[in-house]
Specification:
This protein is α+β, with helices and mostly antiparallel strands. It contains 7 helices and 17 strands. A hairpin with a 2-residue loop joins strand 4 and strand 5. The protein is globular.
């Protein structure tokens, strides 16, 4: 990408190569106990080899595409008790045959693998004070109901040098104690100002997101990924213009992340503290599926865009992060899983819109909003 600003050619090269940082993960010791974060390293110049976005095709699915679907009523709560006949699946506005269908209500009908909840504390894109506040709210959630979690839960702490991961557990007390021990001085590099800082956070955040998707793809079952924080910079604005090479790399990254999230069965949610600001709803301009590299922009990789396209939700910021998480967790109580055969594509990475309609008034279905088909 090329930025028409005073920051010069270094930024141009970096933007052409995003995302680019190697990202490492560290598992917390058994039982969720954590250790003191390592000493902070000196800032390093990002490597110029992108970790993702270099291949032209999305991960190939073996057989039919599987979708997790949540149906909600006017109250916003998940609705159970629906049958196959109540659903119509549209692929590029054309009806597609549903090959398999399962309904789960969390009581009588439970999935073979319990739904996993992934809580992400973002220490890359927030000032220390907000990181501490978000950690306190997440601990409050973990201690609800005497620390008895409804779903296996894990906590990722994202820094610009890697991720600390707790093991999935139903013991909220142990997980809360481990989370509280984490210091808030988690950023290895100082918050750089202007475009350079935004570039650093954009790249390391996307690498973290990609790393989580890779890690969670190793385990079966559905996952709810709840990211605490507004996400990384969108790098969008009137002074940003993309080169053809930059757009192609961004398009490849968009294609790959779309496939990874779907195959790992990850639905993404965004929660954040504060009040709505000027940029709160800017992501809504990028919700449509990207069909060609010429249409790819960095805004298409925003956290809230990925959340919306995965079938998740985005709430406006407020002061009760715990209540936001509680609302999202309800999506694990009742949902539907269905599959279909995608038609052969005429070209690699052919984008298809997906929509599921429910034949009952007042009900809305949420699932992945699209996929990239292959010849």
């Amino acid at each position: 990408m090329r930025i028409m600003s005073r920051f010069g050619s270094a930024i141009i090269v970096l933007l052409l190569c995003l995302p680019r940082l190697a990202f490492t993960q560290q598992s917390l010791p058994p039982g969720g106990a954590t250790t003191t974060p390592p000493a902070m390293a000196a800032p390093q110049t990002p490597a110029l080899s992108p970790r993702i976005g270099t291949e032209a095709e999305a991960p190939r699915a073996a057989g039919p595409i599987k979708l997790d679907v949540v149906v909600t009523g006017k109250s916003g709560k998940p609705v159970s008790g629906l049958d196959l006949k109540d659903f119509t699946l549209l692929d590029d506005k054309l009806p597609a045959k549903i090959l398999s269908f399962q309904a789960f209500d969390g009581i009588a009908q439970k999935p073979d693998q319990p739904v996993k909840v992934i809580l992400v504390i973002d220490a890359v894109n927030l000032p220390f004070g907000l990181v501490a506040n978000e950690r306190q709210q997440i601990v409050k959630f973990l201690l609800e109901n005497g620390g008895h979690l409804a779903e296996p839960t894990t906590v990722y702490v994202i820094t610009d040098t890697g991720a600390k991961i707790s093991r999935p557990t139903l013991d909220g007390n142990t997980l809360a104690a481990a989370t509280e021990k984490l210091g808030i001085g988690l950023r290895a590099t100082g918050r750089a100002a202007g475009a350079w800082g935004a570039i650093q956070r954009f790249g390391s955040s996307l690498d973290a997101f990609n790393s989580i998707a890779d890690n969670e793809a190793k385990t079966p079952g559905r996952k709810l990924l709840i990211w605490a924080g507004p996400g990384w910079p969108m790098l969008a604005g009137p002074n940003i213009e993309a080169s053809a090479k930059g757009q192609q790399q961004m398009f490849n990254t968009i294609v790959q992340l779309s496939g990874k999230l779907r195959q790992a069965r990850i639905t993404v949610y965004s929660v954040s503290l504060g009040v709505p600001g000027i940029g709160t709803y800017l992501y809504e301009d990028y919700l449509k599926g990207v069909k060609t590299a010429e249409n790819a922009e960095s805004g298409n990789l925003a956290l809230k865009v990925l959340a919306s396209q995965s079938g998740g939700r985005v709430m406006k910021p407020d002061n009760d992060l715990t209540a936001q998480i509680d609302t999202y967790i309800q999506d694990a109580t009742a949902f539907y899983t269905m599959s279909f055969d995608p038609p052969p594509a005429d070209r690699a990475n052919e984008y298809h819109d997906l929509k599921i309609e429910v034949d009952k008034p007042g009900l809305t279905a949420r699932t992945s909003t699209g996929y990239y088909a292959q010849p």
